[in-house]
Amino acid sequence: MKFFAKHKYDISIVLAFLLFIVFLIIFRDKFGILSDRESFEQLIRSFGIFAPFAIIIAIIIEVVLAPLPGFIPAISAGFIFGAFYGSLYTYTGNVLGSFLVFWLSRKFGRAIAERLFGGEKLKKYEDLISRRENFLLFLYIFPIFPIDIISGAFGLSGISFKKFALAVSIGFVTHVLVLNLFGDWLARIFFMI
């Protein structure tokens, strides 16, 4: 009993991560067709009243495991739920996903971070963080940087979780607004390539 009381936070994170894995396994065939906005919207709408949870979980999975282009779930959230709720769900998913990546990297170290993001990419951001930690926290504002890799690199750095959480929580406000305002334009560019 003491073990569970002492590690309840860690256990809840691990259980949430396992739920994400189950979600991925259940929908692994559908993730292969999520290369366009319409198929992703159909998948999310199929959850009915649980669609908000589905989009938040999809965004968290995207941040942690990156099986989708990052802006597809975010833009789809705006189309499906409208500007306010779409922004709220996008914000929640991105912040929770970034926290989870930070925590996984901090808790399990370089091995897990390299598996998730690749050693070369991770090293690039680690080097930047070691030189300009405070500046790099601003990267969460712009939806063009790989937040998953940056969060993993911050998890391996000496930054406190409190400082990281504050920067991510504030930065994603602008990030989400940019995605909602320019989402359609970004999607058209992505699907033309």
Rounded to the nearest angstrom, the distance between the terminal CA atoms is 55 Å
Low-confidence stretches: none
- Major sheet details: none
Helix-strand topology string:
HHHHHHHHHH
Count of runs of 4 or more consecutive helical residues: 10
> What structural class do the secondary elements suggest?
mainly alpha
- What's the shape? globular
Number of domains: 1
Radius of gyration: 17 Å
Overall average pLDDT:
76
Portion in beta strands: under 5%
- Which bin fits the share of residues in helices? over 70%
Can you count the beta strands? 0
Topology:
Layout: H1 2-6, H2 8-26, H3 28-31, H4 37-45, H5 51-65, H6 71-108, H7 110-117, H8 119-136, H9 147-156, H10 161-192
Walk me through what this model shows:
The structure is a single chain. This protein is mostly helical. The protein has one domain. Helices cover 82% and strands 0% of the residues. It has helices at residues 2-6, 8-26, 28-31, 37-45, 51-65, 71-108, 110-117, 119-136, 147-156, 161-192. Helix 6 (71-108) runs antiparallel to helix 10. The longest helix has 38 residues, at 71-108. It is globular and about 40 Å long. The model has no long low-confidence stretch (mean pLDDT 76).
